[in-house]
Amino acid sequence: MGRPRAFDEDQAVRTAAELFAGHGYEGTSVDDLVTALGVHRGSLYKVFGSKRGLYLATLRHHLDRHVLPFAAELATARDLESALVPAAEAFDGGPAAGLLLLAQAERAHRDPEVAALTEEGFAALERALARVLAASGGPDAEAGPDLAAVLGAAVLGLRLRSRTAGVVPKAARALAACAVPPPAGTASRPADLPTGE
Amino acid sequence: MARVTVADDTLTVEVEGLDKLWALRSRLEIPLANVRGATRDPGIVRDPKGIRAPGTHVPGVIVAGTFHRDGERVFWDVKDPEKAVVIELADERYVRLVVQVDDPRAVVELVEGARRGR
Question: Which residue range is the domain that position B74 belongs to?
Fold first, then answer.
């Protein structure tokens, strides 16, 4: 305990987060980590206890540095479209982009601590969307959180596709128009809806 | 080969079969509070292990016994690197145990889950 750490823990966690985001938990071996982090295996075990201990630290770091600040920024969007489009394009971003969604798919169902961390990220997204809804003339306070949950799920689906599919901003705009229809008299822009071609 | 079990807040590692002769110490009991985690780590066998005393080390064949390196004492019992699991400890005679188990994935989940449940 009293001995100084032999390496920069924060840097190690950042590098490990990128590895886990790129290759998944199972796909990243201790050899991969030792090589990329440039640390002794013994130091790695001493500081983090296990590969899982390091993985949990990377998720915590990714949430604190990227996911939660991004959600806080989304909450200040002036309207729903200004929140949904960036969320669909860049939620769960940063150097370890995709770590949260990958953790949810790969580990959360087997590991309650991972599930608690991913849920924290998703809940932050929903809260941000609920706030934007409330501020932009969405449904009443009772239905708002439900709609925010639906929008959050849709955004995560779009985010999953955003690295390969080009329809994301368009779909996110359509989603915003469905959730909070523009006032009567303005164009409803049906041409913006995805056509499913 | 080692058998790893958890009961009553205690992790028990029993070295089975002939390995007992080489590893000398056949049963280790560790309070869960002193267990920091478990990891499947086939690559650890290629790391320098330090000086053995006591036990046996036939390079490339078998690693069993107590090894000292950088002031750390590590317990080894591994023949098949693919089945090596590293159990990290705190405030114990050994800083870590590197043991071969039948089902590494199950042992890792057992140990990590037991820590979580405390």
Answer: 2-116
